[in-house]
Amino acid sequence: MTIPSVDVAIIGGGIAGSSLAIVLQRDGLSTAVIEREPAFRDRVRGEACHPWGVKELYELGLESFVFEAGGQRIPNWTQYRDRDVDSTFAWEEAFPGIYPEIGFSHPALQERLLRGATEAGAIVHRPARASIARQRDSWLLQIDGPDGVYDLQARYLIAADGKTSATRKLWGCETVIDPPHHQFGGLLVKNLNLDPTSSHQGFHTAGFLMIFPQGNDLWRVYYVGPDNPTEAFGGSDRIGTYLKACAACFPEDAFANATPSGPLAFFPNSHVSATRIAGEMAVAIGDAAGAPDPSQGHGMSLLWRDVRVLRDLLRTESWQDVAVSFAVTRRSYETILRTHAAWVAPLTTNVSEAGLALQAQVELARADDPEALGYASIFALGPDSQPTDDDARAQFFGEHKAEHPIRIDTPLDKID
C-alpha cells in the first residue's frame, strides 16, 4: 500500500505553523499540519506585534487574517508616569512609511489561520499527535487523529510546536534558559477607559506595565514586576490585587470599570533558546526555534520573520542546504534580540542605588548616541545589524563616559 506523501509536514498548527502552511501552499508546495489541541484557548502570551513584525506580516500577505480575526491597528503609543501622560507619539510620525503596531486575540487568530491553511489546500490533522522517524530520504509520521492511526511521508519537517517543542529533540536539540530578571504577568481585561488606538505603558518603582488593545473592547494588561508574584498577587482576591496594582500606574478612571476576562498568569522574564535549530531536512520556527524575553514583546514579530525567511529559502536554495542557511540567519537576528533584552533589563527593573547610578550613566551615553547603536529603533525597524560584542555593550552602557564606570556583565550561554 502506498503511503500518502507531502512536501512539508508541520508539527503545530498555531500561528507559526498555520502561517507557514498558507504561504507554502500558495507557492505550490503540499503541506500537512498536525495540531494536538481540539480548540485553542486563551492563555497569557503575545497578542501584539511591533511594526517590524507587521512589515513581515504584510510581506507574507497574511494581514487579512488578522483583521478577519478581529484584530486592529494601533498607530499610537502613550507613556505615563505618576498616573499622568508623560509622552505620546505616533509610529507614522516617528518612522514615516512604517506600519503601525497591531493587536489581536491570540486564539482567535490561531483559529482563523488554521482554517486558512485548510482553505489554501493544506491537510490538517486535528486533534492529532504524531510519532516521527527519519527514513533514508524522508520523514515518516504515524499520525493518531480523529479518524484513527495512519501513516504519512514528508520530504521536509517543521517544528512549530512552541518553546517546549518535543519535535526538535529528534535532532538532539536541548533548551537553554537565560537567567530571569523579575517576572512577567498578564491578564485579559474588558472595559478599560483608555484610547483604543494606542498602546499604553506605565511605570512603577520596580518595573513597568504594557496595555495592548486587541479589539472588541478587550485589552491585555502585562505587568513586569516583583521577584515573587505569588507573594505580591496571592490570596483569594489575586486578580483584584493585580488590577489594583495596574490601575495605580494609569489615570484615575482608566480601570474604574475594568473586569477580568481571562486567566492571570506569571512567567519568568527569560529568553529561551534552542541549541540546534536545524536537523536533517528539518528546522524549527517560532518559539520552537527560540522564544524571546517576553518583556520586550518581540515574539510575534520574530515568528513572522521566521516564516518569511524560511519561505524565501525554500524558494531559492537547494532543500539540502535550507536548514543550515535558515539556522545561521535565524540565529543572527535572534542574538540581537536576546542581547538587547539582557542589556535593558537592569535599566527597567533595578531600583537599587547602583541601578539608579547605572541609569544615569546610560543617560550620558544617550546624549552622544541617541540611537543607542541602532537599538533605539529596534521595535520599529527590528533586529538588523546592531552589534552585540563586548565593545558594543560598553558603549551601550556608557562606560567610556563615566569617571568611575559601572560595568554590567550580561553573560549568555553560547548557542550554535
Task: Describe the 3D structure.
The protein is of the alpha+beta class and 416 residues long. Among the domains are: 200 residues, 3-Layer(bba) Sandwich (FAD/NAD(P)-binding domain); 86 residues, D-Amino Acid Oxidase, subunit A, domain 2 (D-Amino Acid Oxidase, Chain A, domain 2), CATH 3.30.9.10. The protein is 32% helix and 27% strand. It is built from 12 helices and 21 strands. Strands 1, 2, 8, 9, 10, 11, 19 and 20 form an 8-stranded mixed beta sheet that branches. It has a 7-stranded mixed beta sheet with strand order 6-5-14-15-16-13-17. A 3-stranded antiparallel beta sheet has the order 3-7-4. A hairpin with a 4-residue loop joins strand 15 and strand 16. Helix 1 packs parallel to helix 8. The two termini are 41 Å apart. The model has no long low-confidence stretch (mean pLDDT 93).
Main features:
D-Amino Acid Oxidase, Chain A, domain 2; alpha+beta; FAD/NAD(P)-binding domain; 7-stranded mixed β-sheet; 416 residues; globular; 8-stranded mixed β-sheet
Shape: globular
The CATH homology group name of the domain at 5-69 and 104-176 and 272-333: FAD/NAD(P)-binding domain
Distance N terminus to C terminus? 41 Å
- CATH level 1 name of the domain at 5-69 and 104-176 and 272-333: Alpha Beta
Q: Under CATH, the topology of the domain at 5-69 and 104-176 and 272-333 is which?
A: FAD/NAD(P)-binding domain
Compute the number of helices: 12
Poorly predicted residue ranges = none
- Determine the structural class based on helices, strands and strand pairing: alpha+beta
Describe the main β-sheet briefly.
Answer: 8 strands, mixed
Note the beta-strand portion. Answer: 25-35%
Integer-rounded radius of gyration: 22 Å
Please identify, by name, the CATH architecture of the domain at 5-69 and 104-176 and 272-333: 3-Layer(bba) Sandwich
Query: Which whole number gives the mean pLDDT?
Result: 93
Work out the number of β strands.
21
**Proportion of residues in helical segments:** 25-40%
